[in-house]
């Protein structure tokens, strides 16, 4: 990765964005792969319901980055209406691939042992599926609308979602509420997808459900607007950073104020959650842009950049490998059969306390993928999805 020669040169890749994306994906792998789900440090867990832990920031940060990337990748196409249809078709193809990869993770490995049962009970929503939907819809809105209209759409999405969730009585319940199983989003997800295709840990609601994808699109549009502003050539870098930092702080404050009436909640992806996380993402990206792209302090970035340029690839494979490990059985020292992952985890039990052993396994998993990605980066292997 060659550092950009000027922070206002929009024809080159933004190194700070790759760094931010890579750090986000590495964090996602860290929290998704503890050695023991029963022993996790509190910051590495999601909030029980309302509230926001560091772990809750990871997914909205990634959707925000998707939005920024859209502004950079499709900026030249936006000014050429004749290229819109082809660009939308490419976006649709990419979205379908992402959605299919997410479904494959939900189906694997049962799809090879019991295909009928696998499809009958496959979870349709998911992380990659939501990324696919947000990417596709945000791409269309970016190509077909001015920045002012995109901002208006973002506000409308947040306002409509808030109004529906807090004022519309839930059928069968009789009143509007924000509880896990009885909120309007859960009712819609159960009605459209049925319990067979929802999150298996709950079955009555899904954290990546249909209805909560509406405000998730707003998170993507938040990133689009930040990306458009960063690309502007008529504004110097210092002004960009000042405005973005101020806007980010303002969004965080608005999110915290809205939290008093519409609680910050990742599973519901509440409007306050969109503003709060979008504001934090804007602050972090503006700081990264100032340090890495403007001041050219970038020697520390490579471990995260190698994650960032193959982000979807490593996320998919990091979800697939533990499933494969769980399929393979080996004998331990007592002759009992255990999964390969449990066998590999045994040394961590010996040298660490349970909670530190769980963390050490997760860190080792992140470093394992870092080595692979570093080799791929050195050989200029970038798998585009």
From TrEMBL:
<keyword id="KW-1133">Transmembrane helix</keyword>
<feature type="transmembrane region" description="Helical">
    <location>
        <begin position="273"/>
        <end position="292"/>
    </location>
</feature>
<feature type="transmembrane region" description="Helical">
    <location>
        <begin position="304"/>
        <end position="328"/>
    </location>
</feature>
<keyword id="KW-0472">Membrane</keyword>
<feature type="transmembrane region" description="Helical">
    <location>
        <begin position="95"/>
        <end position="112"/>
    </location>
</feature>
<protein>
    <submittedName>
        <fullName>DUF5009 domain-containing protein</fullName>
    </submittedName>
</protein>
<feature type="transmembrane region" description="Helical">
    <location>
        <begin position="124"/>
        <end position="143"/>
    </location>
</feature>
<feature type="transmembrane region" description="Helical">
    <location>
        <begin position="57"/>
        <end position="74"/>
    </location>
</feature>
<keyword id="KW-0812">Transmembrane</keyword>
<feature type="transmembrane region" description="Helical">
    <location>
        <begin position="209"/>
        <end position="230"/>
    </location>
</feature>
<feature type="transmembrane region" description="Helical">
    <location>
        <begin position="150"/>
        <end position="170"/>
    </location>
</feature>
<feature type="transmembrane region" description="Helical">
    <location>
        <begin position="242"/>
        <end position="261"/>
    </location>
</feature>
<feature type="transmembrane region" description="Helical">
    <location>
        <begin position="348"/>
        <end position="375"/>
    </location>
</feature>
């Amino acid at each position: 990765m060659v550092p950009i020669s000027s922070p206002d040169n929009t024809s080159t890749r933004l190194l700070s964005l790759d760094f931010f994306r890579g750090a986000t994906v590495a964090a996602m792998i860290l929290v998704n792969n503890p050695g023991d789900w029963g022993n996790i440090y509190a910051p590495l867990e999601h909030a029980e319901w309302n509230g926001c832990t560091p772990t809750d920031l990871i997914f909205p940060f990634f959707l925000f980055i998707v939005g920024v990337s859209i502004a950079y990748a499709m900026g030249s196409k936006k000014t050429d209406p004749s290229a819109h249809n082809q660009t939308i078709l490419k976006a649709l193809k990419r979205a379908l691939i992402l959605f299919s990869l997410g479904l494959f993770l939900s189906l694997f490995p049962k799809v090879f042992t019991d295909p009928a049962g696998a499809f009958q009970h496959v979870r349709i929503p998911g992380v990659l599926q939501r990324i696919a939907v947000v990417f596709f819809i945000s791409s269309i809105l970016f190509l077909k609308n001015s920045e002012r209209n995109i901002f208006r759409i973002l506000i409308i999405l947040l306002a409509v979602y808030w109004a529906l969730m807090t004022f519309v009585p839930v059928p069968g319940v009789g009143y509007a509420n924000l509880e896990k199983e009885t909120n309007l989003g859960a009712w819609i997800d159960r009605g459209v997808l049925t319990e067979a295709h929802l999150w298996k840990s709950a079955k009555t609601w899904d954290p990546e459900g249909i209805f909560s994808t509406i405000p998730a699109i707003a998170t993507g549009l938040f990133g689009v607007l930040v990306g458009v502003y960063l690309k502007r050539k008529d504004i110097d870098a210092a002004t960009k950073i000042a405005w973005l930092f101020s806007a980010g702080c303002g969004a965080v404050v608005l999110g915290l104020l809205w939290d008093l009436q519409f609680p910050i909640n990742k599973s519901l992806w509440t409007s306050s959650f969109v503003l709060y996380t979008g504001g934090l993402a804007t602050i972090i990206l503006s700081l990264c842009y100032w340090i890495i792209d403007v001041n050219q302090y970038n020697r520390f970035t490579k471990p995260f950049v190698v994650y960032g340029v193959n982000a979807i690839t490593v996320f998919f494979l990091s979800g697939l490998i533990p499933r494969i490990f769980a399929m393979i059985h080996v004998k331990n020292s007592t002759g009992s059969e255990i999964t390969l992952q449990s066998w590999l985890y045994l040394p961590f039990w010996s040298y660490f306390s349970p909670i530190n052993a769980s963390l050490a396994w997760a860190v080792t998993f992140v470093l394992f993928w870092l080595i692979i990605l570093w080799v791929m980066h050195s050989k200029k292997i970038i798998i585009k999805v």
